[in-house]
Structures are given as C-alpha cells and as structure tokens.
C-alpha cells in the first residue's frame, strides 16, 4: 500500500469530507442540571463498598499481560484473581485518564466531545437480526448494515455512526469486521466505533484508521471508540482485554462497560449492583491507564433487571433507571466520561410497549447526564433486532431530547416582553411580530406524529406511526448521497482489506 494516502490524510485531517450545513449540531451541550438520586453520603457508601470488593473479593483477569501490569503496579495476584490495595484503581485512573476528550470525525464539523455537560447519541449496537414492516424479522446482512449506517448519517439527532449496528451474518465471522468498519468510513463522515471481537480485529481497525487519518494523526488523536464489556460478575476475558490493550496502546478510546442483568449477574438491589459495577469498571479502566497513561477511557454500564419468573431481561422499569442515575454520579466523582442508557425495550415490534419502555430509558438518560448514549435509536427485542422503523421513531424522540437539553431561553427574545406589550389583554399572539419572527423554530416539529384532524388522517391512508416511519426510511435511502471520500484513501482502504482477507481462511464460528 502506498504511503501517500496516509500522508495526505494526515495533512487534510479527515479523509477529504466536506463540512455539513452549519445548522447541524454535532453533539448536545446540556444547559439543564443533572438530577441525582444519591447524596454525598450515599455515593461514599457505594464507593467504599466497591473498594472492599476490589480489595477482598477481587476481579478475575483472564489475560497474562494484564496480570503482569497489575502485579508491577502493586496489586496482589492469585492465579487469575487480582486484589487491589484500597484506593489503587481510583488513584491510577485519576492520575491520567482525561475527564473530557474529543473524538475526531473525518469531517471536522462532526467531531464530538465526550465528558462534561455533553451528550452524544449513537445508534443500536450488536443485534443479529433486523426487522422492517415489509419483510419482518430476519438475519441481518451487510446491505442492512450499510443501510443503518446511511440512515444514521442522515439523521441529525444521531451524532455518531455507532459500531455493530447489526451483525452481517452473510459474511465470514472472522472477516466481517473489515466490511463493517469500511462501511462507517465510506458511507458516513460521523465518528464511529471499531471491532472488539479479537485483538487482531482491533488492530485491523486501528490500521484502517491510520489509512483514513494518517499514522501520526491517529497516535495523537482519538479517532475511534470501542465497547469493552466485562463478563459480570467480576471477570474480564482475554478477548475484551486484548482488544482494549490494542486501542489503549494506540491512544484510542475504550468504553469499559460491565454488562449486568441484576438478580443474575449482580445483586438484586440497586446499591449492591452499583458497588459491583463500579468495582468492575474501575478495574478495567485502570488497566487501560497502565497500558498507556492518558489514553481516553469511558466508564460504561449496561444494567437491566430480569423477570424473576422467567429470567428474561426487562426494560423500561424503574430499577435500571435508578442504577443508571447512580452510576452517572459515580462517574462524575471519579472524573471520567460516562456511557449508558438508550431507547431500550423488550417488545418484539415497534408498538406501544416499545415506545413506553424506550421513553422510560431515554428520559433518565438525558436527565442523569450520560455522555455517550449507545442504543439511542433502533433497539428492539431486548437487543436481538435492529428495527428500521424504530430507528426513525427513536431519532424523532432524540430530537426532542435536544430541545429539552437546551433548557429555558432567557435572552431578550426568549423573555418575549415585546410580544406581551404588543398584544395586551384579550387578544391573541398569532399575528404579533415576535410570533412571526419565531414561529419556524419556536416548537419542535415531530417527523412521526400526526396532529391533523381525524378526517385528514383517514383520507391520507389511516397510517400509524410505524407506517409513517416505514415511508420515511425508504425515502431517506432513496435520497442518500455519500459524503466525499478521497479516492486515493478509498483505494488504499480497499487494498488493505483485500490483502488482509487473503491472509487467512474464512471462519463461520
């Protein structure tokens, strides 16, 4: 492969993409306060219990390089079990992990800030199935993956391209990561996530990023973010740790995220779950800082409850929202960005259950101050299916969250005293100058909701929200235009993919 595309990408900065319209908001800056359920005393109790877990119970690290790093740092190693001196993980994290960092997109107008009072919405991640109103539920294919990337690129309330927006089952398991990462690079110019299913696949992601951005640029900037799950309870496996090591060594971001179904993988209580997930997250984040101090890391959690009758995960219930809120506060005290939340539901189709459960997750997500929101749109069936229609419906709700996050406008225009003086008692505001100047942007306009009369709704086909969303995503794909990508960089990426795919046999397990 030629060195020229790398150098050119490094100078130009983002693979040659043109900037979007100025009206596009690349991420949310919240102007409303966070809502906290735990006071200082409660947070201190959770932190103390997490330190006890790290010190007395310990965390299993099934990865020899991690064991060596922790031993050299002063932890007690007993086989795969690592026990930490009190406060050790917190000290390692706070010594070097950034509280705020920027993920660079190939279009600089799409860069996102992670941490502080910023919120970034990313689409669904991980389902093996897709669903739409026309074809129903089916295994996802690479065309579906590309479609979800294109739709996420076109939806302004999604700030991030995400990662495994669905699992393309028509491609070999050990090679599909090339096509997935390339789809994010080719069909969108928003930030994206990389592969974590094997350390070699993580390295492939980094190498592709070096082609897209330039080798030196990647070493000094965060251009890809990655989901590293703990195998709760209190275990990290070789695959996740190996991928995390690759990304941290290359200065790329890891979301260290305990995956917890409370009652099965953690205690049934919120306080017990919070202590365990804080212990797991701190241990994983400390590992990234030992690999490369200062590499960006995000405190993540995916916590849900289960049905104590069937054992199935449940969504939209109060308990996960409580855990989410407490974990967000713990992340702020630790001084690192936080990932959680989304538009989660257990419903099999985008119906009333899906809407209610998703609303009960996305609202606490915003109010709790989550920085990176994975599964913000498109999630269905407890994460087993990516839904075309629900992606559109959820994105509409995310636009509303953007408005809510703006808070109350107290500018002179926002105070609207000129309107009150002009109209006076007993009249209406429809024709006053202030209304005329502001009516286009005064209220959020839903792309999904129908607020017309019954007669008009009936005359237009009696479409429900899912039907309207179906029409929208089809029209969007019909109208899609790819963001520009330097042809030399595109060629270099395709050459790299072809060469690497040729180096080993296909595997489907």
3D architecture notes:
Strands 10, 11, 13, 14, 15, 16 and 17 form a seven-stranded mixed beta sheet that branches. The protein has helices spanning 4-12, 40-57, 64-73, 88-96, 142-154, 176-187, 199-213, 215-220, 238-249, 270-291, 318-334, 352-367, 388-406, 412-415, 417-423, 433-438, 454-459, 465-479, 487-501, and strands spanning 28-29, 59-61, 76-78, 81-83, 100-103, 112-115, 118-121, 129-132, 136-139, 192-193, 224-230, 235-236, 253-261, 297-300, 302-306, 313-314, 338-339, 372-373, 379-380, 385-387. It has two domains: 8-31 and 94-406, TIM Barrel; 40-88, no CATH class. It has 509 residues and is of the alpha/beta class. 45% of the residues lie in helices and 14% in strands. It has 19 helices and 20 strands. The longest helix is centred in the middle third of the chain and has 22 residues, at 270-291.
Number of strands: 20
User: Would you identify the CATH architecture of the largest domain?
Assistant: Alpha-Beta Barrel
Q: Percent of residues in beta strands?
A: 5-15%
- What is the approximate shape? globular
- Tally of DSSP helical segments: 19
- List the uncertain runs: 1-14, 16-22
Please bin the fraction of helical residues: 40-55%
Helix and strand content put the structural class at alpha/beta
Distance linking N and C termini: 30 Å
**Main beta-sheet strand count, sense and barrel state:** 7 strands, mixed
At the third CATH level, what is the topology name of the largest domain? TIM Barrel
């Amino acid at each position: 492969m030629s060195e020229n595309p790398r150098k050119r990408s490094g100078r130009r900065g983002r693979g040659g993409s043109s900037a979007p319209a100025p009206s596009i908001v690349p991420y949310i800056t919240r102007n409303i306060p966070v809502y906290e359920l735990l006071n200082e005393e409660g947070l201190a109790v959770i932190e103390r219990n997490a330190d006890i877990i790290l010190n007395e119970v310990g965390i299993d690290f099934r990865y020899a390089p991690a064991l060596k790093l922790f031993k050299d740092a002063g932890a007690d190693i007993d086989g795969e079990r690592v026990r930490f001196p009190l406060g050790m993980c917190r000290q390692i994290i706070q010594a070097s992990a950034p509280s705020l960092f920027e993920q660079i997109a190939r279009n600089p107008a799409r860069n996102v800030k992670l941490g502080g009072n910023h919120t970034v919405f990313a689409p669904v991640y991980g389902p093996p199935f897709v669903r739409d109103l026309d074809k129903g539920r089916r295994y996802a294919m690479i065309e579906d993956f590309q479609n979800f990337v294109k739709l996420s690129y076109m939806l302004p309330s999604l700030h991030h391209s995400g990662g495994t927006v669905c699992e393309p089952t028509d491609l070999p398991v050990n090679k599909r990561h090339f096509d997935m990462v390339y789809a994010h690079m080719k069909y969108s110019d928003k930030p994206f996530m990389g592969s974590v299913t094997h350390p070699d696949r993580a390295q492939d992601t980094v190498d592709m990023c070096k082609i897209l951005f330039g080798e030196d640029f990647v070493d000094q900037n965060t251009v890809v973010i990655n989901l590293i799950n703990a195998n709760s309870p209190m275990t990290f496996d070789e695959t996740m740790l190996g991928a995390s090591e690759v990304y941290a060594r290359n200065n790329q971001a890891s979301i260290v995220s305990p995956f917890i179904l409370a009652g099965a993988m953690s205690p049934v209580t919120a306080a017990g779950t919070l202590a365990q997930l804080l212990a797991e997250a701190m241990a994983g984040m400390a590992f990234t800082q030992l690999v490369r101090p200062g590499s960006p890391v995000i405190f993540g959690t995916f916590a849900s409850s289960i049905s104590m009758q069937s054992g199935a995960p449940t969504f939209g219930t109060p308990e996960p929202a409580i855990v989410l809120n407490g974990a967000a506060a713990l992340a702020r005290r630790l001084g690192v960005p936080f990932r959680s939340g989304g538009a989660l539901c257990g419903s099999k189709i985008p119906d009333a259950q899906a809407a209610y459960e998703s609303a009960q997750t996305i609202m606490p997500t915003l109010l709790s101050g989550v920085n990176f929101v994975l599964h913000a749109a498109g999630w269905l069936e407890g994460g087993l299916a990516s839904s075309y229609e629900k992606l559109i419906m959820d994105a509409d709700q995310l636009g509303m969250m953007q408005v809510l996050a703006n808070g109350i406008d107290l500018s002179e225009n926002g105070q609207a005293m000129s309107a009150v003086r002009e109209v006076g008692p007993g009249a209406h505001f429809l024709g006053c100058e202030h209304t005329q100047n502001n009516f286009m942007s005064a209220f959020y306009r839903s792309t999904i909701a129908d607020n017309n009369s019954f007669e008009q709704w009936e005359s237009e086909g009696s479409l429900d929200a899912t039907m309207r969303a179906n029409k929208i995503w089809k029209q969007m794909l019909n109208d899609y235009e790819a963001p520009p990508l330097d042809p030399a960089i595109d060629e270099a990426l395709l050459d790299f993919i072809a060469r690497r795919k040729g180096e080993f046999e296909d595997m489907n397990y």
